[in-house]
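User: Fold both of these, please.

Assistant: Here is the first one.
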Amino acid sequence: MRRTALVLIALGVVIAMTGASLRLAAWIGQTDARANWEKEVAEPGSTANATGVFTRLSFPARGREFFVLDGASRANLLLGPAHIEGTGTPGANGNFIVAAHRDTHFRILKDLKKGELITLNRRGRTFQYRIVALEVVRPTDNSFYQPTSTPVLTLVTCYPFYYLGRAPKRFIVRAELLESNS
């Protein structure tokens, strides 16, 4: 009985430390990305290409911002939201798709509402989008991942937000471009 209790306690500690280490990596990734972003703004051309940081994603109504890495590799998704390669660019016709983990960076998506604004900053330009759809879909439903003829932003994460293990669905936020400026 005592041995079982010790094993369960040890297992609980391992699980807690694993979760904490993932959150720490996510925080460090965004802290480093912010520093690189600020350096890039101060000295254009200095770091963005080397680090992959190229877009700041802001949720003004929520007072939150994230730094999007280029390429949705396993390593990049650990550090922050990541742009799906081969999809659009901010402000241009096409579907700019960003993915992130539901238990770190994109937990905020659960609180978003239709009509809220999302801002992207990239290479000295600002793009403002308005949320037009919030959807829960099966992982096999790729309708939101298709190219578009108008400027669209798609954010994707796993769903449900508090599910343990591999989540069975995806949560999609679709936003349309309102305006852009330099």
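And the second sequence with its predicted structure:
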Amino acid sequence: MNKKIVNNMVYSIREIVLENILKNNLILNNDKIIVAVSGGPDSICLLDVLTNLKSELKEKHNINYDLFVAHVNHKIRKESDEEKIYVESVCKNHNIPFYYKEADILKISKEMKISEETCGRYVRYEFFNEILSNINASKIAVAHNMDDNVETIFLNIIRGSGIKGLIGMNFLSGNIIRPILNIQKSDILEYCELEKLDPCFDATNELDIYKRNKIRLKLIPSIKNEYNENIVQNIIRMSKIAKIDNDFMDSYSENIVKKCILNADKETITFDFSIILNEHEAVQNRVIRNIIFKNQGNLEGIEQIHVSDIQKLFTNNIKGKKYIIGNKFTIEIVKKNIAIIY
């Protein structure tokens, strides 16, 4: 292959990642970044790009950062031990600290009564956050790409998601960064080949035994063949439009939250729900969820039926009436138009 073509492809992907970093503030000066590396093409490409961008970011943009690698052996496949050796050798070659954990995902998933996929994710992020705390790191870099994002959006649609589900993943979510989120899998594979990175390949990715695999291996190819060959690009375009709309709704709803909250502390929030009821139903939904999140710190187990029931509570506006969700929280009307969540 022509060396110029090789260089152009490698340069192009590194430039895209550089732009992603700068545009979305993914990496700041003196950041310590834990890179989640499985040994597959995506994470190996991510690690290689971040390693090669260090000098340019430091010299041209005054952004210096340190990389650390975290690798989890799920003990599901016989190749897992070889993948650990491979990732560790890559780290040695680049003088990058390597952190390793073994976890019997099959056993743990049965004990927790959750799927292998969910269990694997739980164990991985628990490990990543443990390292983050121990070394006082600031970011966790994961190798989600454009294809992963489209699969996530399809999963959300199948689950009956609202507008946020149509957005998919973000470049920055809390302390998690996704520098290659807008790069296609095919380009990542080509990058690995051109740079002779020789990544590992997980054979289970080609088995239609998981929902995500079925979407990748069956649903998307079927839509491409039968309906629209540009479905991936169209889904990404839709997600960008959804994000613009969602950002506006978030901003507007947050202003309503600020207006209606009368008092807030660690345990309770007192608010004027008449302000909420004056808004469109779409805004009401968001404001109620926002207040719950501010009080609880999460929205786990909160579905639309709960939000609708809370709206009915406010509409009836009867002093002393309560809405209780298990041992999570209680919303009580303390007087006309005023409620408290605790």
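The longest strand covers residues 65-73.
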